[in-house]
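Sequence in, structure out. First:
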Amino acid sequence: MCRSSGSPPDHQSDHVSTDSVETTVYISTSGGRTIPAHAQILASASPVLESIIDNLRKHQRLEEAITIPGVPCDAVEVFVNFMYTNRCSEVEMEKFGIHLLALAHVYMVRQLKTQCSKALVRRLTVENVVDVLQLARLCDAPDLYLKCMRLISNRFKPVEETEGWKFLQNNDPFLELEILKFIDESESRRKSTKKHLQAQTVYFQLSEAMDCLYHICTQGCTSVGPHDKEPIKNRAPCSKFTTCQGLQHSIQHFASCKKRVNGGCVRCKRMWQLFKLHSSICDQSPDTSCKVPLCRQFKTKGKQVNNKKEEARWELLVRKVEAAKAVSSVSLPKTKIEHQDYEQEEEPRSFREAMNCHVSVAC
């Protein structure tokens, strides 16, 4: 049998007058404890208790106790104390967090409900997550519900071995189906996100290749450069672009490959597409002399559209690469660009020296 408290808690706020809290009501727990409290304090904290107190006052039955069943006596006392102080200790949350969330939901004490949801999120484990999920669903706590779902989705194998999950399978098949559906949708989102990130990586790589191609054809690098600049010996390897060396080798191959005339070289086809992609994003007019090979020819030929479906796909690729280029240009520090550009102007080197292959990349 729980002991009874003799007088209401002495936690009156400074802004609450004595007249407004002088009416005392009593809360009865299922364990037999009677907790006195000020009617006005309870009514201001909970619209449900306000309605109950107004009904008792209307029928002149304020001496009757308000029953809160199904919850431990100490949890009810912590609940009443919260309505006075708006505070709840970590120890109390540890012991009565689940009970307090249920009380906060039933009696519409929003601040306590928010605190309980956050406290239960911090205490989620594989063992208790199914029980907390069921409570969050009943108490309409969406944040807590989502956190539980994510934990179950991420650690489904160990959760599947718990007693809570076995009980759920036998007693709530609809919630089990809801969880499995969430896991399936989460997996689909992961795959979609992974696919999107892989596509974005390709667009960023193509954007870097465009910058690198322009850098090689206008400034020159270790083995390839414009035809109108003299080569400079003993130049250090290019550190501006990760793809620079490979792209220079591809340009050298493209210039000397005999198979590309008949379209039989895969490597030359890729290089051809890079030149075409550059011409699609190049902002220079066809009348000006862009130093990147085939730029003017592609711009002129691009006006003659033969396959509208392929052209639409190509335009989509161009837009994606332009977007990636805009993002990368913002993220690259200006000082690094200026420093590297200065070095490129100081030491342009023709690729003609490499592999004894004399090739010009001018249009």
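Second:
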Amino acid sequence: MELYGNKLYYKHYYNHLLIVHYCYISLWKKRTKRTFSRHHAPEAIESYYQRYCITLYCITSVDLSPALMARIILDRFLQGLEGGMPSKTVLNSMLKEPSLIPDQMLAKHIYQCTINDCCYGPLVDCIKHAIGQEHEVLLCDKLKERNLSFLDENQLRVMGYDKTPDIILEVPIAVEGHIVHWIESKASFGDDHSHRTYLNEQFWSYWNRFGPGLVIYWYGFIEELDCQRDRGILLKDCFPTDIVLCNAAQQDGPPQEPE
């Protein structure tokens, strides 16, 4: 009884549930990407559109994310209404606020689709953004606790940097024997697909501009992915405790933006 009343036990159990949840979402997104094109075939779109007014359960039986299905159906509806392709701005605004849709029945079903989707849609985007912000604040708090001087993403943008990690350390640190100039916070589980995408679109760019860095996947990652340490990208699933402050004699702010 004492074990199950322990807060640490519940926290540990909860973290494992989150990791399982993120793994499920990752697998579902992989599957969606493989089958996405066939759902956008003209005959498929027309079939979905003719059936949209039955029930939400009929829509989900098509084996496509409810929010993505809602987008297909709304796009088709607006094409018929306006006689042409709707703008992304209009489409996104109606997905976020279904009351803007002229057809009340369609608006109701679009709303049901967006709130019943755990992977895609405006509600999921909002939750992901909030969780991401929460962990960025957590990272800043951890750095302040260790009295480490840093620049955050907003400060770097003011300085003219367009694509930056969440944190640039004004004085580099060493973590497990590896130099770290920057830190990126990821409030997600690091699976092979997402990590490969981040490497190509973010991490190597940061490495080229600012030197070696650290990525924190707060909800864990596949251990085999932590294979770029010698090349300058270190992975952790928590804020490091074994931090060594490097000599700052030659350090005067973050490295300069390349010409």
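Remark: The longest helix spans residues 7-39.
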